[in-house]
Amino acid sequence: MLPLCFALLLITIKVSGAAESTFEREGNRYAYSVRLQSPIPPDSLIRMLFALDAVRRLSSQADTVFARDEDSLSYTVVMRFQFLGVEGSTSYRRTLHPTEDSISIRMLHFEHNWPLLPRPRQIDAWFVAEPGEGGSWLEYHQKVVVSRRVGTLYRLIIQRELREFAEILGKLVKSDKSDGSS
């Protein structure tokens, strides 16, 4: 059995509503992964998830989502949000890797007005689609470093947001739209 102090540092939680998902935290870092099955072929699935419409659907807490600095393989997403008295904005660079059926996402900027919540310092995420029976297996991974330890309140907020994200992602990838729009 692990010592209690070590067990409290690293918590792995099954997130409900997703086929296979995990949330792990240690100090000021956390990681999240989810794996879902889709009837859409890998290349079409990744193109669909790369579209700005998919970003808008997956960013349910954002009031405003728009793209800038666009080219065929990458763009910057800017989001503005307001919830529970917290206001903020963030920007991410999304890059499509068509030969690998993947998308990489890197945070460029993050601001919010509530000093009680840790501020994200680094966020890296990626989608990877692989052929599977009847379509694809999709994996989403996210690694985050914040300004201070991930406490209970922040962990609960993050987990709620990730559950919602996984539910929306699950519905999105199970749709039969594979034309790059949604």
Helix content: 10-25%
Number of domains: 1
- Could you name the ranges where pLDDT drops below 50 across 5 or more consecutive residues? 1-18, 178-182
Q: What's the CATH architecture? A: 2-Layer Sandwich
**Oligomeric composition of the shown chains:** single chain
Average pLDDT for all residues: 84
According to CATH, the homologous superfamily is START domain
Write a structural description.
- The chain has 182 residues and is α+β, with helices and mostly antiparallel strands.
- The chain has a single domain, classed as Alpha-D-Glucose-1,6-Bisphosphate, Chain A, domain 4 (2-Layer Sandwich), CATH 3.30.530.20.
- The chain has a nine-stranded antiparallel beta sheet with strand order 1-2-3-9-8-7-6-5-4.
- Strand 1 and strand 2 form a beta hairpin.
- The longest helix has 23 residues.
- The radius of gyration is 17 Å and the shape is globular.
Q: What can be said about this structure in brief?
A:
With 182 residues, the protein is of the alpha+beta class. It is built from 4 helices and 9 strands; from the N terminus they run H-E-E-E-H-H-E-E-E-E-E-E-H. The model is unreliable at 1-18 and 178-182 (pLDDT under 50).
